């Protein structure tokens, strides 16, 4: 019987590149979205609501670009996934604390 897993060699370097591209797209997007919320919550007390939101959105483009560069600069795809996961969790927790403090 034919199985797809028998024909796919996951040791091929193409899978590492594919994993990094997926990590850059999905993990970078998540990090950019969460960083936008973080900056909006951080700047909410010092300026107006809409200005803080716009600055957060503009900063998210910079964060996304840096996340993509970082994903391709680390040693392995596993390190890229774990690193972005850690960044996302830490930023979610800090944003939640800021949100609780502002309300």
Describe the structure.
Helix content is 82%, strand content 0%. The chain is elongated and about 55 Å long. The mean pLDDT is 90.
How do the helices and strands line up, and which of them pair or pack?
Blueprint: H1 4-7, H2 13-43, H3 49-71, H4 77-102
Helix pairs in contact: 2-3, 2-4
Quick recap:
Helices cover 82% and strands 0% of the residues.
SSE series:
HHHH
Classify the oligomer: single chain
- Specify the number of helices: 4
Helix content: over 70%
Q: What characterizes the major β-sheet? A: none
Rg over C-alpha atoms, rounded to the nearest angstrom: 18 Å
* Number of strand elements: 0
Based on CA inertia axes, which overall geometry fits? elongated
Mean of residue pLDDT? 90
Structural class: mainly alpha
The fraction of residues assigned to DSSP E strands is under 5%
Considering the chains and any ligands shown, give keywords for the structure:
mainly alpha; single chain; 103 residues
